[in-house]
Amino acid sequence: MIDTLKITVLIISISFLIIPELIGQSASDLRGKAEDYYRTEQYDRAEEYYRKSLGLERSPETLFNLGNALYKQGRFDEAAEFFEASRELLGRSGQRADAWYNYGNARFEEMDFESAIEAYRNALLDQPEHHEARNNLLLSKMLLEQMQSQEQQQTAQTGDFDSGEYDDWEFMDAPDQQPEEGEGEMEGTIAERDQPEDGESLESDDDPLEQISDQRLQQLLQIAEQDDQQARRKMNERQSDRGQSLRDW
Fold first, then answer.
1. Domain ranges in the chain?
2. Separation in Å, CA 30 to CA 24, 79, 146, 207, 212
3. Which residues contact residue 214 at a Cβ distance below 8 angstroms, ignoring those fewer than 6 apart?
4. How far is CA 114 from the centre of its chain?
5. N or C: which end of the chain has fewer CB within 10 A?
């Protein structure tokens, strides 16, 4: 009888120890632990507890914050999925605008500027005074235009050669091709023009053509460098105007 009583008391005591632990496993408490890890930049641990919280309750806040934890780990595609899932559970509000904004930033990091532009526009529809979304929208448009311009230039250059436009250039003909009658009479043949006059050397350092060529090359290099510096300066100005990478819940 005494042993049975002791066993009963022991079971009750253990129950009192277990019950608080069970209570501590609620979705909100798990989310709280995740936020503690997030604040200390332990994003992998934050992800773990946000996922545990989602297993008990699928809330837009937890989806949103899990997206932030994934973003901080550089997993932008996954982060975008959770920002999108959070947004779908929200009505039109500042929080939904932030979900659009964070989604846009995740797509921006993947250089998917078209999707980023659409996301920033939607953020502004939900919250017109969202200045960071406006700045990032302008930056995304500029980068998209630059990317498209570069692609067009590359396509044009590739297309010129693929189309065979240069196949009939004269310098590609056989070297023993004879000029037609009357050709070269004023200027002489190529061989004649290349012959030095008496006492003159082709390798002379005083050849004005070589000096002009070098000067022109130097000018082109300077112009290219100035253009590059100007483009970088504009890019840095745009980047400095870019909104913070993420909005918190």
1. 18-148+215-249
2. 8, 20, 45, 81, 74
3. none
4. 11
5. N
Report the 10 Å Cβ neighbour count for 184.
14
Q: How confident is the model at residue 236 (pLDDT cuts 50, 70, 90)?
A: low
Q: Is the dihedral of CA 190, 191, 197, 200 positive or negative?
A: positive
Considering only CA atoms, give the Rg of the chain: 35
Cα–Cα distance between 138 and 120 in angstroms, integer? Answer: 9
Please name which of 39, 69, 108, 46 lies closest in space to residue 100, comparing C-alpha atoms.
108
Which one-letter amino acid corresponds to residue 144? L
- pLDDT of residue 127 exceeding 60, the answer is yes
Reported as a pLDDT band with limits 50, 70 and 90, residue 156 is: confident
Residues 30, 24: Cα–Cα separation, whole Å? 8
CA distances from 182 to 169, 170, 187 (A): 20, 17, 11
Distance between CA 17 and CA 6 in Å, rounded?
Answer: 17
Helices (H), 73-128: 76-88, 94-109, 113-126
Written out in words, the top-level CATH class of the domain with range 18-148+215-249 is mainly alpha
Distance between CA atoms of residues 116 and 136, nearest Å: 9
Q: Is the pTM of this model over 0.85?
A: no
**Average pLDDT of every residue of the chain:** 75
Q: What SS3 state is found at 91?
A: coil
Residue 64 has φ and ψ, to the nearest 5°, of -60, -50
